[in-house]
Amino acid sequence: MGTYETLNDVLVNLFRDISGIEQKAVRELGYPDITMNDLHVIEAIGIGTPKNMSSIAKKLSVTVGTLTIAMNSLVKKGYVKRERGEEDRRVVYISLSDKGKKAFVHHARFHKEMITSIMDEFDDDEKKILIRGLTKLDNWFKNKEEENKKNRE
Length: 153
Prior knowledge:
The protein has helices at 3-28, 36-45, 53-60, 64-77, 98-119, 124-152; strands at 51-52, 80-84, 92-96. With 153 residues, it is mostly helical. It has a three-stranded antiparallel β-sheet with strand order 1-3-2.
C-alpha cells in the first residue's frame, strides 16, 4: 500500500475510532443521552464564565440558529443553563449545570488519557514532528472551511 492509501486509511479510521470510542466512554460513565454533537457543545461552553450564544457558535463554526437547536436539547436534558443578562436582558448567557460540568470533566479526562498514552510512545523529535504534521492538517481543514464559507456567500 502506498503513502496516499496508508494515510487515507489511517485518517478515516482515526476519525471513526475516536468518535466511536469517545461516545462509548461517555455512555459507560453514565451519560447515555449525550451525543457527540452535545459533547462538542459542552466542551465549547466549558467550565467558568458563562458565554453568550454568539461566542459559542463562533467557537463551533456554526450559526446561532443551529446552536439554538442543540442548546434546547441540552437544556431539556439538564446539562446546560440559560440566564438573561442583568444589564441587557436581550443577551442570553449559557453555562453548564452541575450535570453538564460532570460530563465536561469526564470528557476532558478521556482526552487527557488519550493524549498522554499516545505521547508516551514518542521521543521529543517524534512529538515535534507529530504536532507539526497535525497542525498543518488542522490548518488545511480551517482553510477549507473558510473557502467553503466564501463559496456559500
